Amino acid sequence: MKLFLLLVGMVFILEGLPYVAFPEAMRGWLAKLSQTPAGQLRVVGLVVMVVGFLLCWVVQRTDLFVE
Asked: pTM value?
């Protein structure tokens, strides 16, 4: 549970960073994002989820990242 909460905290940090560092750019990007078709957003979301899943799977199942 501790690891999960640490990961959620890291996600919050990474999600909030662009809004703190580049608020005007984010406003423009969000305006463009709101005009993107729903189907395209779903495809991008699915691709990102699959990449995240594969990254977690590789890290868990291999010794590639052991120091």
From this structure: 0.71
Cβ contacts of residue 19 below 8 Å, gap of 6+? 26
3-state secondary structure 24-46: HHHHHHHHHHHCCCHHHHHHHHH
- Per the listing, tokens 């993107």 go with 36
Tokens of 3: 């690891």
Q: What is the Cα–Cα distance from 58 to 11, expressed in whole angstroms?
A: 19
What does the domain layout of the chain look like in residue ranges? 1-35, 37-67
Q: Given pLDDT bands bounded at 50, 70 and 90, which one contains residue 53?
A: very high
